[in-house]
Amino acid sequence: MKKDVQEFQEIYDTYQPRILSYLARMVGPDEAEDLTQDVFLKVIQALPGFRGQSSLSTWIYRIATNAAWDRLRRPAGQRTAASGPREDADAGADAEDALMGEAAPSAEQQLIRVEMRGCIMEFVEKLPENYRTVIVLSELEDLRNSEIAEILGVTLDTVKIRLHRARARLKEELRGHCDFFRDERNEIACDRKREDPKPALTD
Hints:
Blueprint (H helix, E strand, L loop, with lengths): L1 H26 L1 H18 L9 H17 L20 H8 L6 H18 L4 H12 L4 H8 L3 H22 E5 L5 E5 L11
Helix pairs in contact: 1-2, 1-3, 2-3, 3-7, 6-8, 7-8
């Protein structure tokens, strides 16, 4: 019994931050913490039956994905309203660090990063469920296509097709609503395009 508790604690310590981050991107930060606890309750209940047919990581992500889908499919009135995209340091940080190339970003750079995360995540959240899931797993969780296929229970070709279509749709949305440019430090930044005001109705 003590060994089982220790094993679960090690799993929890290893995967809880990743699953919390993943669920925040899937269902919003307001619901992510409670849902993460639900996921690990399911993990501890199912752990004795885990036979290692998949990796532990993909198994936990599969449980988390199913939990996220269940939450997303609830009627709007039964869900906590999302408070907007997360603004923590790890949300898309790896991709942005590669673009920025700075070990210690200035306050202005940090603000630009937050704005970029907010702009991009706003449109990720509007994608259909199956596209949103593959984008988050691939681009933000940095999982391989083979791992995503295992998590979703679909073929590798299906994952590739969904990713292609999801990226195309996201790119189209971003181009339609955001202006990307390089600032005075030659770093990528973005501005939301102004919406044209609707003409006033006349009699």
